Amino acid sequence: MAKKNKGKKDPLLSQKIQIWIIVLLVPVAITVYFFVYLAWKELQLIPTFQATVEEEEASQVPPNFDLDIPMEYIPIYLAAEEKYGVPWTLLAAHHRVETRFSTMSTLVSPVGAEGHMQFMPCTFVGWKHPTCTGLGQGEITKEEKMNPKMIKKYGGYGVDANNDGIADPYDIEDAIYSAANFLAKAGVAKGELKKAIYQYNHSAQYVEDILFYYKQYREHSEELERVALQEANAKK
Predict the structure, then answer these.
(1) Residues 160 and 148: beta-carbon distance below 8 Å
(2) Would you say residue 133 lies in a domain?
(3) Do 34 and 88 lie in a common domain?
(4) Which bin fits 13, alpha (ψ -120 to 50), beta or left (φ > 0)?
(5) How many domains does the chain fold into?
(6) How far apart are CA 200 and CA 217, in angstroms?
(7) 128-141 pLDDT, tens per residue?
(8) What's this model's pTM, rounded to 2 decimal places?
(9) Distance (Å, rounded) from C-alpha 97 to C-alpha 23?
């Protein structure tokens, strides 16, 4: 007669029953997940909840994102976008790449590009100027360079944005509007962003750099505009 094994107990449920329970629970879990997902989507439609989610998303900015856009420039970019149809985020990208938002020690490049958005004198005043050759430095007097009538005469891209009678590449509004004027005519108005960027600076690497910042700024444009508006209202 075999001895009973007192140390081992029979399982409450057989292995076969356990498998059947698992099989039955899978569709239940899927159903619960489905209804939880629907409930989440419904909650997002509630204004207060949606605003909370947007605030959380706005704070989750990628660590490599270049947020160093001075907020006071954004209204100028937006105004230039409204007039010329050039995305303000593209103007910000050019400003970032050209002069790091005007924080460089000098706003004159080694080849003679000038101002916040780095225009060659002949591009700003117009290549029809009798002294314009080569890279476009020319022998243009300061009075000619800042005279809207001369710019119109020689076919330049300089703009008197603030209507003070002067088109100045060292004036932030004039410079940004002039860049928007150039980019619009160079291809942005037709949706040819890469072509326009390349016309601004004939370098494939330059195009890549501009598009890198442009895409990041565009992705977070609403948050950036909201912050800029809040700061503007706070100063009133």
Answers:
(1) yes
(2) yes
(3) no
(4) beta
(5) 2
(6) 19
(7) 999 999 999 999 99
(8) 0.72
(9) 59
